[in-house]
């Protein structure tokens, strides 16, 4: 993660004219609202987005859209994508339902830069942020949900980091001690080009002590049918438009450079052209994974909550949330193959398991309303992705056969494969069978199915305490926030369907350990990646359990504390002036390690064992940084009449700063990018109209905004790391 040194400021002005126009339809009578006495009039939708208190969304001077429970049910909303499409300036990217999802506000998309920095938008489930560092989160299904609120534009003063461009809040129904309630719902659906889907849901609200204590249980099981077809096909047989046969035919005659450099370019045994060793490219077919509607998803969700109204002034709510979503295939398709069709060689899958505890204490202190929100959140997403084509072309310069060992000069530069008695170039990257092609031709590197895999997990504790008051002249909010979180991931790179212990890569590492190879990459005296730089005992122990060649492991801790507040001055009966701000401090600790010959824990799916990649020795140390910043907010709101308001708003959102991975070779005082990177800010200038017309039967909201993205964080590859 890098950021240009100050004082230079990088700004990305977003489109100077962007308007969101919303036309509301009449909500059913049981919506979360108060119904106007006139038939057909639109209802008020009450939200708590400003944290000061419950307010009509039409009277909040910012771009907020809310959909109450009844409207969610009426539109048939089951998942996020179903209702987000009715929210202007909000987009939902759903690669698969098993946790690989992103919410985008006003086009501010940072989903491709998530290895180190945080994201620009977030999702809250009640009081808990559930967005990971890379921007992904579970797809929360609409199970017993009271409403959803979309806060477009920077929300830095009240919601902190990861609300730089906006925040989506999902508010669940709470236990009601005043009455018994129960419901059940069974849904089946089908599509012209999709498999059948179903959803079974039940809710029970049960007062145990009338008007004092109640529990509420909601449970759901669902399946979403697939709609993408993985059709029959074979792997590509070309590289930059040239087939392997054409490449081999164009190979130059044998020649020899002066020692010690030599390339043998005879037909079929040299690596000076890629095709000589890849004549079987394109033979592999995907018959074993071809499938109609292969991108299905299944989920199980449970919520148990209890509410205790201690007395007239104090109440507490304890809630437990659990979700398990598993998706198959991928929602992407290849238009060059066909509509809703693709050609894949391994089935992508993803599973997200998460649970959350939340404790909310509310009190009327007389001078102010008090809220304490405590949350614990744990989520792990485990996945497998089809990386076949990426690995195929990555290895086009590696793993090439150099001819019989006895006839190959300067084997110091090659590896002698004992299974074939052939010389191989850079075998560490070769996760194909050590015995060569299944056709029996040991000169050929066959097609392989390439897999990427790994888990990513988040553990988060948050505590927010806030006081608020709504008065005749002044409304105010004051709060404290603390977060202790861990965002970690493991990534297995270049795995294949061939068991690792049967590959050339494994045999090569073993040969380096046993001293049976003369290849220079075995020795640290010749190569920074020389394997003898690692203790032989560590390498031997790794080989006993190894099931993949390479993986990376990232462990990132965040500790954040913040003070925030807001004052609304009712200057006149029609004019309100709002001042707000947030000061925050973040401490970031990061440890990133590259490992060889690791293995995957069967229970946790996390990577373990292995030995450090020799070139990474010295970088396996935790890096730490502490940064602080302040973001302001100012707005003016003028109430033209009871149904029309105009407002002007300046607000800022931010992504927190942090620290880069270790680089023992770097002189940070001389680098273009520093080791620490500061928060970047999104500055928002906004004008808006909120209005209702025709006796409250038509709603028209207009928003004009201009945003500058200052000190933009961007990721680059540091080639000096190794």
Q: What is the 3D form?
A: elongated
Radius of gyration using CA atoms only: 30 Å
Oligomer: single chain
**Termini separation (Å)?**
16 Å
- Structure summary, number of beta strands: 37
Q: Name the helicity range.
A: under 10%
Number of helices: 7
Provide the structure class: mainly beta
Question: Which stretches are poorly predicted, pLDDT < 50 over at least 5 residues?
Answer: 1-37, 256-264, 266-270
Question: What amount of the residues lies in strands?
Answer: 35-45%
Mean pLDDT: 86
Largest sheet: 17 strands, antiparallel
Descriptive notes:
With 722 residues, the chain is mainly beta. The chain has a domain at 238-281 and 400-444 and 500-546. The protein has seven helices and 37 strands. α6 (504-514) runs antiparallel to α7. The longest helix has 11 residues, at 504-514. The protein is elongated and about 95 Å long. Residues 1-37, 256-264 and 266-270 have low confidence and may be disordered.
């Amino acid at each position: 993660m890098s950021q240009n040194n100050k004082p230079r400021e990088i700004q990305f002005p977003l489109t100077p004219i962007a308007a969101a126009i919303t036309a509301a339809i009449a909500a059913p009578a049981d919506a979360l609202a108060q119904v106007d006495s006139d038939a057909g009039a639109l209802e008020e939708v009450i939200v708590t987005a400003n944290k000061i208190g419950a307010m009509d969304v039409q009277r909040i001077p910012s771009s907020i859209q809310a959909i109450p429970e009844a409207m969610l049910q009426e539109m048939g909303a089951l998942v996020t994508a179903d209702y987000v499409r009715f929210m202007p300036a909000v987009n939902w990217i759903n690669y698969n339902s098993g946790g690989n999802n992103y919410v985008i506000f006003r086009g501010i998309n940072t989903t491709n830069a998530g290895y180190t920095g945080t994201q620009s938008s977030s999702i809250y489930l009640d009081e808990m942020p559930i967005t990971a560092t890379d921007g992904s989160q579970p797809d929360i299904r609409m199970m017993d949900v009271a409403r959803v609120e979309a806060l477009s534009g920077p929300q830095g003063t009240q919601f902190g980091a990861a609300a730089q461009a906006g925040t989506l809040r999902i508010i669940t129904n709470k236990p009601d001690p005043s009455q018994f309630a129960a419901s059940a719902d069974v849904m089946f659906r089908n599509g012209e080009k999709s498999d059948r889907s179903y959803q079974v849901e039940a809710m029970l609200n049960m007062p145990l002590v009338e008007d004092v204590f109640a529990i509420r249980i909601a449970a759901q099981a669902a399946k979403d049918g697939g709609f993408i077809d993985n059709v029959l096909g074979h792997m590509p047989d070309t590289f930059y438009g040239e087939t392997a046969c054409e490449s081999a035919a164009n190979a130059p005659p044998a020649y020899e450079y002066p020692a010690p450099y030599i390339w043998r370019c005879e037909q079929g045994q040299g690596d000076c052209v890629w095709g000589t060793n890849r004549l079987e490219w394109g033979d592999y077919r995907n018959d074993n994974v071809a499938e109609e509607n292969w991108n299905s998803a299944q989920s199980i969700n449970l919520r148990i909550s209890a509410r205790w109204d201690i007395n007239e002034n104090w109440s507490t709510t304890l809630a437990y949330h659990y979700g398990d979503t598993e998706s198959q295939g991928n929602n992407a398709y290849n238009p060059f193959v066909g509509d809703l069709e693709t050609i894949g060689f391994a089935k992508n899958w993803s599973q997200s398991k998460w649970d959350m505890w939340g404790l909310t204490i509310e009190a009327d202190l007389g001078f102010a309303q008090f809220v304490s929100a405590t949350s614990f959140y744990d989520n792990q997403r485990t996945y497998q992705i089809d990386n076949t084509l990426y690995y195929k072309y990555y290895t086009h310069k590696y793993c090439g056969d150099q001819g019989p060992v006895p006839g190959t000069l300067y084997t110091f530069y090659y590896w002698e494969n004992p299974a074939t008695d052939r010389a191989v170039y850079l075998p560490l990257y070769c996760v194909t069978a050590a015995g060569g092609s299944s056709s029996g031709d040991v000169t050929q590197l066959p097609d392989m199915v390439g897999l990427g895999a790994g888990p990513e997990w988040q553990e988060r504790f948050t505590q927010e305490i806030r006081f608020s008051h709504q008065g005749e002249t002044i409304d105010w909010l004051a709060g404290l926030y603390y977060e202790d979180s861990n965002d970690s991931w493991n990534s297995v790179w270049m795995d294949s369907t061939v068991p690792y212990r049967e590959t050339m890569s494994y045999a090569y590492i073993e040969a380096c350990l046993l001293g049976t190879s003369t290849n220079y990459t075995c020795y640290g005296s010749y190569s920074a990646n020389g394997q003898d730089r690692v203790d032989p005992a560590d390498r031997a122990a790794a080989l006993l359990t190894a099931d993949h060649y390479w993986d990376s492991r990232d462990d990132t801790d965040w500790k954040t504390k913040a003070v925030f507040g807001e004052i609304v001055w009712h200057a006149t009966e029609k004019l309100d002036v709002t001042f707000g701000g947030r000061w925050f401090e973040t401490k970031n600790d990061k440890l990133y390690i590259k490992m060889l010959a690791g293995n995957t824990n069967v229970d946790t799916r996390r990577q373990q064992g292995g030995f450090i990649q020799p070139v990474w020795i010295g970088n396996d140390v935790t890096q730490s940084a502490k940064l602080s910043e302040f973001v302001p907010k100012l707005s003016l709101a003028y109430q033209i009449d009871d149904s029309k308001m105009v407002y002007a708003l300046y607000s800022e959102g931010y992504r927190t700063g942090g620290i880069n991975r270790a680089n023992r070779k770097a002189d940070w005082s001389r680098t273009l990018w520093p080791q620490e990177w500061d928060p970047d800010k999104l500055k928002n200038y906004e004008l808006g109209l909120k209005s209702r017309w025709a006796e409250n039967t038509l709603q028209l909201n207009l928003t004009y905004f201009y945003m500058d993205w200052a000190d933009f964080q961007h990721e680059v590859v540091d080639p000096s790391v190794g």
